[in-house]
Design brief:
CATH superfamily of chain B: P-loop containing nucleotide triphosphate hydrolases
Helix content of chain A: over 70%
Number of strands of chain B: 9
Number of strands of chain A: 0
CATH topology of chain B: Rossmann fold
Shape of chain A: globular
Largest sheet of chain B: 6 strands, mixed
Number of helices of chain B: 8
Distance between the termini of chain A: 57 Å
Distance between the termini of chain B: 33 Å
Largest interface: A-B, 14 and 21 residues
CATH architecture of chain B: 3-Layer(aba) Sandwich
Structural class of chain A: mainly alpha
Number of domains of chain B: 1
Number of domains of chain A: 1
Largest sheet of chain A: none
Bound molecules: adenosine-5'-diphosphate, magnesium ion
Radius of gyration of chain A: 23 Å
CATH class of chain B: Alpha Beta
Shape of chain B: globular
Oligomer: heterodimer
Strand content of chain B: 25-35%
Chain lengths: 265, 237
């Protein structure tokens, strides 16, 4: 009986600890975010670093995003053909492809790809700078690491992701087009006409809003975990993992929240 | 005659349950060269990080000139405060994504790069190289150049010769000696290397168990009766 009680006590203690550390890290993250906002408003903006990061995160991710989108568009066309041909609704395929790509698949897949690619790289780079005292060195050289390292990366993420997604939208639709025209004998002009007439501003726009939010989540989580890395190479590795896992989960969560917001409009 | 520059008063610092500094007292005097010695892990780096404001101490106070208890400085004042220090970090801490010229630019204050490179014994050609292309000894020289370029009020050297072979270590020691003696700059050197102590320290502080166990003139270090310090010095020479 007493053993049961004591193990229950230990368990609840553990649980309390877990809850406490959860709220503690939320507090830390909010604090980190507020610092970013504050220093962005009050201190120097390093435009050349922003530009460098914009190329790194945006331009260099084009091949990955392009490949993901084209295959997704192609698969989407094939799968919807399988379904729609059962009730002779093949003509709706262009509509399904463009809707799914712009509203959902291009932003989410681009987000996840960039989280793995750039989010991890950011966490590793900033984490290494942290554990090798490069960030401390910056501080003593009158350079605010938030302005020099973090804010340019986050802004680059917020701005480059929507651009990537626009490219992904176009390539994804192209993927569907290629399958439908070459394999399923659609009329090319009709396909494009269908796509163009059907898609609405809000479809594309909601995808771009998502992309921006994902760009923020990816770069913010990369910076946050890198900045809080400690304990040498192992700590850097851990921060990379945390960054990719947390931003991927947050992307899926925010995707749902944003979708349901636009659903009501 | 001697003028106090930094006063460390009853400073304590712990990590979780581990006490690193335990009500430590230490005065640093203007234009003097102080060496902090002690076993690896005794808290020498933590102490210097507290002094420069990179780390908050839990208790006590550190005063710098007219500034009282630097823990209470605002973020902005802290940035300002830190810029008074020139620091050579334990692993040099050069920004590895930038070449040497860009690295030095952070500390640049109108003084000529040529002159400073000369002072630390580096060729001009090094400016376009990246830190990873340099030997550890050269990285230390660049770190040293970056630290003195900004004309700091206090120079902090964290293990300037650790990890170097004896010949390079000797060169670095002589280099620092020259700088310290010539510029009369207030210097705190954390070291394992007794050669550094003999070459350029005016005073020595021995850190153990979270406090300064022995403090005195570098010349008188061998007359000390502190047994753990004697053991420490014998152990490494
Ligand atoms: N961030 C940290 N978290 C926990 N312990 C730390 C941290 N930084 C340093 N320590 C501990 O503090 C002690 C003193 O470290 P340090 O000042 O680096 O020693 P040294 O005298 O070799 O420079 C070490 O035992 C180290 O384990
Ligand atoms: Mg140390």
């Amino acid at each position: 009986m007493t053993r049961l009680l004591s193990s229950a006590l230990a368990l609840s203690k553990r649980l309390l600890n877990l809850i406490f550390s959860f709220f503690y890290s939320i507090g830390e993250i909010v604090d980190f975010f507020l610092k970013c906002v504050k220093y962005f408003i009050t201190e120097k903006f390093y435009f050349n670093i922003f530009l460098k990061q914009f190329i790194k995160i945006g331009f260099n991710s084009l091949p990955v995003v392009g490949l993901t989108s084209i295959f997704t568009g192609m698969v989407l066309a094939l799968q919807s053909y399988t379904g729609f041909s059962r009730f002779s609704a093949e003509s709706a395929i262009p509509n399904v492809v463009v809707l799914s790509i712009t509203r959902e698949l291009a932003p989410v897949l681009a987000g996840l790809m960039v989280a793995g690619r750039s989010g991890a790289a950011i966490a590793a780079e900033i984490g290494t700078m942290k554990v090798t005292e490069q960030i401390d060195a910056l501080k003593t050289l009158s350079t605010n690491p938030f302005n020099y390292l973090i804010i340019p990366r986050i802004l680059a993420g917020i701005i480059s992701l929507p651009i990537l997604v626009i490219v992904g939208d176009i390539i994804g639709v192209l993927g569907g087009y290629l399958i439908c025209v070459n394999l399923l004998n659609f009329n090319p002009t009709v396909y494009l006409q269908n796509t163009y007439n059907f898609v609405q501003f809000l479809d594309v726009f909601s995808g771009l809003v998502k992309a921006s939010v994902f760009g923020f989540l990816i770069t913010f989580m990369g910076c946050y975990h890198g900045f809080n890395a400690n304990g040498g190479a192992q700590g850097v590795g851990q921060s990379t993992t945390y960054s990719v896992v947390s931003s991927s989960i947050l992307i899926l969560l925010m995707n749902y929240i944003i979708t349901s917001f636009f659903f009501r409009l | 005659m001697r003028k106090k520059k930094i006063i460390v008063k009853n400073v304590s610092k712990s990590f979780k349950n581990k006490v690193v500094l335990n009500k430590l007292n230490l005065d640093v005097y203007e234009s003097e060269s102080l060496s902090i010695i002690g076993e690896s892990g005794s808290g020498k780096s933590i102490l210097t990080r507290c002094i420069v404001g990179l780390l908050k101490y839990d208790d006590g106070s550190i005063d710098f000139g007219k500034l009282n208890n630097i823990n209470t400085l605002s973020d902005k004042e802290k940035m300002n405060y830190m810029s008074k220090f020139g620091i050579l970090f334990q692993n040099s801490a050069l920004l590895d994504s930038l070449n040497i010229r860009e690295n030095l630019k952070f500390a640049y204050k109108k003084n000529s790069l040529k002159k400073i490179l000369n002072e630390v014994g580096l060729p001009q050609s090094i400016l376009e190289k990246y830190p990873s292309e340099l030997s550890v000894g050269m990285q230390k020289r660049v770190g040293l150049a970056r630290a003195i370029l900004k004309k700091p009020e206090v120079l902090i050297l964290d293990e300037p010769t650790t990890g170097l072979d004896p010949i390079i270590a000797r060169q670095i020691n002589l280099l620092i000696k020259n700088l310290v003696r010539k510029k009369k700059i207030t210097t705190i050197t954390v070291t394992h290397d007794m050669e550094s102590v003999y070459e350029f320290a005016d005073y020595v502080a021995f850190l153990k168990n979270g406090i300064i166990e022995w403090y005195g003139k570098a010349r008188k270090i061998n007359q000390s009766k502190n047994s753990s310090m004697i053991k420490f010095i014998k152990g490494i020479t």
